[in-house]
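Posting for a labmate who doesn't have an account.
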Amino acid sequence: MAWTIDYAETAKKELRKLDKQTARRIVDFMDERIAGLENPRSTGKALTGPLGGLWRYGVGDCRVICDIQDGALRVLVVRVGNRRDVYR
């Protein structure tokens, strides 16, 4: 079962702000490690509080915040950024 990885406009904008190497590393991680999983929740961690219902993946010092949509087999990347400020 292959999952589709989509990026929200805010995530695309945040990826463009990162250096090219880090952005490429994040996109490769999502395409190679997450898209091919049977269950993308097996790798990530559930968020709580105001971001409850979303999942996060760590890629170096960056965090990728995602909405996993089971019905559409889609992982929507909502936010991308450094771990110190991506949750704000």
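Reply:
Got it, the structure tokens are right above this. DSSP finds two helices and five strands in the chain.
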